[in-house]
Amino acid sequence: MPDFLAFVRSRLEPLELPCQRELQIVEELAAQLEDAYDALLSRGLSEADAWRELQRGLPDWKIFAAQVLEAEGAIVRATQPARAPVSLPHSQLLNAAGLQVLGTTEWGLESDQV
Description:
With 114 residues, the protein is mostly helical. The protein is built from five helices and no strands.
């Protein structure tokens, strides 16, 4: 099985966010990739085919990083009363970035494909 955490870390450029927040984002992305991969395996794809299919549906990492940073900034600006730090669950961050959470459509896979 692929090391999804290492895969995300190697693809997603540093986000210039607090270390803990960036770690949350990387871990959540890795978990979502692993879930999508497991779903592809459960459909009967081989490990190699599931890995290829998963990678084929991944977004451009630079564009994705920019969307995450934009969403993070929008969340902070919209919810921050006065310089208080804001920490929202990663699922809300992905939703703000226009991505579906707990599904695989954010990686280009429709729910009927997994």
